[in-house]
């Protein structure tokens, strides 16, 4: 009886060690020189707001947020360790084996996202609308966590720009018929629901 328990215990230990070693071997220690990532997310209706995050292997990061007529753009720099940790998530979650589209056909608008990655001369795009995909969520959350570490206010920046720009548009439209060469009717529509200061 004791021998059987010991044998089972040894088999379990060997299996655990094997799984850990396989994960270790599969985890990349570097990222491809041609790595490019583009993550776009927001409302399916473009006018309601979209965010676009691009990252390249040099660590150059661009975040562009747009809501109606208002846009905000910020640049950041990710370290090699940041890029490597993102790439490890890409590999760990088998991004290049995922389907090209995941969507809920019962919802016409709602939230949409797409993730495009180029690595080792391969390009793959995954589009998602109104569903959750665990693999994509893990990859994109890693990117957003690193962005949050670099700039904890990044999510608030568009709101601040939106309020400021809409206030300027309101003032300009009180005396004229356009702001930034865009008719006041468009600004009124775009700024509807945006608070004033």
The main sheet comes to: 7 strands, mixed
* Average of pLDDT: 86
Q: Output the number of helix runs.
A: 5
First-residue to last-residue Cα separation: 78 Å
Number of strands: 9
Beta-strand residue percentage: 25-35%
Shape: elongated
Structural class: alpha+beta
Strand order of the largest sheet: 4-3-2-1-6-7-5
Describe the structure in your own words.
The chain is of the alpha+beta class and 197 residues long. The chain has two domains: 36-152, Mago nashi (Mago nashi protein); 157-190, no CATH class. 43% of the residues lie in helices and 28% in strands. It has five helices and nine strands. The strands form two sheets. It has a seven-stranded mixed beta sheet with strand order 4-3-2-1-6-7-5, with helices on one face. A two-stranded antiparallel sheet has the order 8-9. β6 and β7 (122-129) form a beta hairpin. α2 packs antiparallel against α3 and α4 (154-175) packs antiparallel against α5 (184-190). The protein is elongated and about 90 Å long.
Q: What is the structure about, briefly put?
A:
The protein is an alpha+beta fold and 197 residues long.
Write the layout of secondary structure elements.
Elements: H1 2-26, E1 36-43, E2 50-56, E3 60-67, E4 70-77, H2 80-92, E5 101-103, E6 111-119, E7 122-129, H3 134-150, H4 154-175, E8 178-179, E9 182-183, H5 184-190
Parallel strand pairs: 5-7
Antiparallel strand pairs: 1-2, 1-6, 2-3, 3-4, 6-7, 8-9
Helix pairs in contact: 2-3, 4-5
């Amino acid at each position: 009886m004791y021998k059987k328990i010991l044998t089972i215990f040894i088999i379990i230990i060997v299996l655990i060690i094997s799984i850990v070693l396989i994960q270790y071997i599969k985890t990349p220690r570097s990222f491809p020189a041609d790595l490019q990532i583009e993550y776009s997310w927001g409302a399916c209706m473009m006018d309601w707001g979209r965010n676009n995050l691009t990252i390249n292997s040099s660590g150059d990061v661009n975040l562009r947020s747009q809501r109606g007529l208002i846009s905000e753009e910020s640049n950041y720099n990710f370290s090699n360790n940041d890029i490597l940790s993102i790439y490890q998530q890409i590999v760990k979650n088998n991004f290049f084996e995922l389907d090209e589209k995941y969507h809920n056909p019962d919802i016409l608008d709602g939230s949409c996202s797409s993730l495009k990655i180029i690595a080792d001369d391969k390009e793959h795009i995954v589009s998602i609308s109104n569903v959750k995909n665990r693999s994509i969520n893990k990859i994109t959350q890693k990117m957003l966590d690193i962005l949050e570490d670099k700039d904890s206010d990044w999510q608030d920046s568009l709101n601040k720009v939106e309020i400021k720009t809409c206030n300027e548009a309101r003032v300009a439209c009180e005396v004229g018929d356009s702001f930034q060469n865009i008719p006041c009717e468009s600004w009124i529509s775009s700024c509807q629901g945006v608070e004033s200061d």
